[in-house]
């Protein structure tokens, strides 16, 4: 059965990993329980924000709503896991907190080997970079530190870890490769399987290296090139440039942007602490704030807008009012949001994750049987699963239903789709599976 995607947060101590994790996992929206049965202590459930199927105007029974009213299906959207607010759905996704990476980690410094081992199952990384320049490479307080250096050393630690693991047995690997007349893909897949590498990942790695040289003739420099290509393929990385609320952040961000010109789409600016702060105030009833949103509304704002009881919000004292004003000026107005949701969305984009909505009843999108009167009013789009780009209808079926025999699959309009058809956003992504003989 295809594995659920796993995204790991990495970074030096004090870069803001825990704060980022909190801001991604704690949501003020009402959420259901999570779909994963066992969770390791260093794993957490984050919520990926996606446009929900319930808001697609082209769907049957989502006729144009009355002015000011949400589409009919949106009103009845009740996810089993996560939440759906105004058509934005929070879909649970597993996150892994990889603590303690410092320069020298691959040689065991700061328990680095143990933490690197945690990375094996990650499909993508979020590298939390402290762009305030107030913590050094080991996370100790300082001033004027250049955080662009962290991007370089952290990647090089991962490369050195994989390289070291491979080089300790390279002689034997080569001898076996020759003896069994294996292809480079077969041999490397065997060596990289411990990192969850599929054949497709190894093929993409070798495409990147683009060499005709037989594996047994690779010198050390060539093996290192292959490992570099493997790390880039297996661990696509989002750089979460955190602490943008700090006055020194701008110049450091500018330097990193110049350095990363060729891969600018992996940079996301964020202020994790601002997100945690805003969500806490919203929970305590001081402000109106949609997690990850652009706007904050206080009691004063709502009264000024004509809501007589100020939306039931509490009064702010001067200290809180000033903090919110600062946060509006330094983060929300300048960057459009605190950025944390974009960090996760960007990682999901890099992985090409596709949200698929399995429904029992393709006519109503509910989970009940057709024909019952109650079904037309009942909850819709109860489930949503995330699958990788290139997944087929059959892959989704096995993920959702396991080994049960499949009779046929329908999508919107009762149109039949084949097991081999690919799923994509807006295409074969609302599916009804019929179990049994066709
Ligand atoms: N100014 C500012 N400070 C932040 C931000 N995010 C985190 N911090 C602060 O940075 C410090 C370290 O944050 P943590 O989240 O504990 O960092 P960590 O990377 O988990 O640290 P370790 O647990 O040591 O690995 C704390 O004092 C946070 O309050 C941010 O967006 N802006």
From TrEMBL:
It comes from the Eukaryota. InterPro entries: Beta-grasp_dom_sf, G_OBG, GTP-bd, P-loop_NTPase, YGR210-like_G4. CDD domains: TGS_Obg, Ygr210. It holds the Pfam family YGR210-like_G4. Signal peptide: none annotated. One of its GO terms (molecular function) is ATP hydrolysis activity. The keyword Nucleotide-binding applies. One of its GO terms (cellular component) is cytoplasm. Keywords: GTP-binding, Nucleotide-binding. PROSITE patterns: G_OBG. Residues 5-290 form the OBG-type G domain. PANTHER family: OBG GTPASE FAMILY, OBG-TYPE G DOMAIN-CONTAINING PROTEIN. This is OBG-type G domain-containing protein. It comes from Baudoinia panamericana (strain UAMH 10762). The lineage of its organism: Eukaryota, Fungi, Dikarya, Ascomycota, Pezizomycotina.
């Amino acid at each position: 059965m295809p594995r659920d995607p796993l995204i790991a947060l990495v970074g030096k101590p004090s870069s803001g990993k825990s704060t980022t994790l909190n801001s991604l996992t704690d949501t003020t929206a009402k959420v259901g329980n999570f779909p994963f049965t066992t969770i390791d202590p260093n794993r957490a459930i984050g919520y990926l924000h996606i446009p929900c199927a319930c808001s697609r105007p082209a769907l049957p029974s989502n006729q144009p709503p009355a002015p000011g009213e949400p589409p009919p299906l949106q009103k009845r959207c009740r996810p089993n896991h996560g939440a759906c607010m105004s058509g934005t759905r929070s879909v649970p996704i597993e996150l892994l907190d990889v603590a303690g990476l410092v320069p020298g980690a691959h040689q065991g410094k700061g328990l680095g080997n143990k933490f690197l081992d945690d990375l094996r199952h990650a499909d993508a990384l979020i590298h939390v970079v402290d762009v305030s320049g107030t913590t050094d490479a080991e996370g100790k307080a300082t001033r004027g530190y250049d955080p662009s250096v962290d991007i370089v050393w952290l990647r090089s630690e991962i490369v050195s870890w994989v390289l070291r693991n491979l080089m300790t047995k390279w002689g034997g690997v080569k001898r076996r490769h020759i003896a069994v007349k294996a292809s480079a893909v077969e041999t490397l897949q065997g060596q990289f399987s411990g990192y969850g590498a599929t054949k497709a990942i190894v093929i993409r790695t070798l495409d990147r290296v683009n060499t005709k040289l037989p594996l047994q003739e690779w010198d050390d420099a060539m093996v290192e090139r292959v490992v570099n290509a493997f790390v880039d393929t297996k661990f696509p990385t989002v750089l979460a440039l955190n602490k943008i609320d700090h006055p020194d952040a701008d110049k450091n961000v500018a330097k990193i942007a110049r350095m990363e010109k060729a891969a600018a789409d992996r940079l996301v600016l964020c202020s994790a602490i601002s997100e945690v702060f805003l969500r806490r105030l919203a929970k305590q009833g001081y402000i109106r704030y949609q997690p990850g949103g652009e706007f904050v509304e206080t009691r004063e704002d709502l009264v000024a807008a004509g809501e007589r009881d100020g939306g039931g919000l509490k009064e702010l004292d001067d200290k809180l009012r000033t903090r919110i004003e600062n946060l509006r000026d330094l983060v929300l107005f300048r960057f459009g949001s605190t950025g944390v949701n974009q960090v996760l969305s960007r990682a999901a984009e890099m992985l090409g994750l596709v949200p698929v909505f399995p429904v029992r009843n393709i006519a109503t999108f509910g989970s009940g049987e057709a024909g019952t009167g109650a079904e037309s009013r009942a909850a819709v789009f109860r489930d949503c699963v995330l699958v990788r780009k290139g997944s087929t209808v059959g892959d989704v079926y096995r993920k959702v239903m396991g080994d049960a025999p499949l009779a046929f699959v329908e999508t919107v309009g009762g149109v039949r789709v084949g097991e081999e058809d690919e799923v994509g956003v807006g295409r074969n992504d609302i599916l009804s599976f019929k179990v049994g003989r066709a």
